[in-house]
Amino acid sequence: MTTTFHAGERALQQRAGVAERMAEVGPRVIRSFMPDQHRDFFAQLPFVVLGSLDARGQPWASVLAQPPGFVQSPDATRLRLRALPAASDPLAANLAEGAPIGLLGIEPHTRRRNRVNGRVTALDGSGFGVAVEQSFGNCPKYIQAREPVYAEPATISAPAIVGTQLDAVALRLVQAADTFFIASAHPDAGHGPIASQGVDVSHRGGKPGFVRVDVDAVGQQWLTVPDLLGNYFFNTLGNLAVQPQAGLLFIDFAHGDLLHVAVRSEIIWDGPELSRYAGAQRLLRLQVQHVWHRPAALALRWRDLGKAQLSPALAATGAW
Is 240 a domain residue? Predict the structure, then answer.
């Protein structure tokens, strides 16, 4: 079957009043192959963001970086990545032949991004392939312009700091963030016959501080994030509506630290909290469950120490 959107995505489109339009638009822009423009785009990138599932079905977001050209497209239905994750990366345990995977190619300084969802193929000691099941572009909204440059990684990497809560260092990173990535999945990812029932990884951007952190009465940490006006595909929220687990990735653009956070999500559709953030269509409430902090793990450096030109689309949005 080739249904463009699964039931969770269609339910959110229906609630937003765009179901009929998306039923028409979706098949035109979400393809089972990559147009040449997308294939060339992936080949020029020094990093890609990936979404994968662990043995418990928990989504994780990760990033792989190598000199440009490490991603190639042998044909319109395949990608080949000449890279493998470090042992400290959640992705390392999740790569397997046939495993569902999501891939986001993003070029922040030009605000271009394209996505591929599919399955892992040809896994070997030099890298792995991705068999394309869905391919589509995204608009430049909310992408902060900062330019990445590949830098050789340290020969000895620091071990990951693993826990169930954000510590003081991780908390500062999250509260100052203007960007993060989110991996989500359909509950049948890897098993269902429909391409839309897979793993997806997406980008979220906002003014610095757009991720709010609260602690409830029993000490549980919660992240609250505004969901801003988008393309109405609802790939992420549609997944979360039917499988609330998600994986977040925060990047310390000044030092190369990576913060992977496993969360359980709730979608808030209305109420006074929504009105406190200008431009929010909905809110995502994310309960922190597991945290992997990997110091200096990303082999990229960013011009001007990661400082960014904020997206013009954020002018009409608020701050907590």
Answer: yes
Q: Whole-model pTM above 0.85?
A: yes
Mean pLDDT of 139-160: 85
Query: Long-range CB contacts (< 8 A, 24+ apart) of 279-283?
Result: 279/226, 279/228, 279/229, 279/316, 279/317, 279/318, 280/226, 280/227, 280/228, 280/317, 280/318, 281/16, 281/226, 281/227, 281/228, 281/229, 282/226, 282/227, 282/237, 283/224, 283/225, 283/226, 283/227
For residue 29, with 0-12 CB atoms within 10 Å meaning exposed, 13-18 middle and 19 or more buried, which class applies?
middle
Residue 231: alpha-carbon gap to chain centroid: 16
Structure tokens of 95? 């790569």
Q: Which residues contact 287 (CB under 8 A, 6 or more apart)?
A: 220, 221, 222, 263, 264, 265, 266
> Tens of pLDDT along 210-239?
999 999 999 999 999 999 998 899 999 999
pLDDT band, very low/low/confident/very high, at 1 (cuts 50, 70, 90): very low
Do 119 and 99 meet the contact criterion of CB atoms below 8 Å apart? yes
Examine residue 82 and state whether it is found in any structural domain, yes or no.
Answer: yes
Domain contains 318: no
Can you give the residue range of the structural domain that contains 104? Answer: 7-312
Domain CATH code at residue 249: 2.30.110.10
The dihedral region occupied by 142, where left means phi > 0, alpha psi between -120 and 50, and beta the remainder, is left
Torsion sign, CA atoms 93, 88, 189, 131: negative
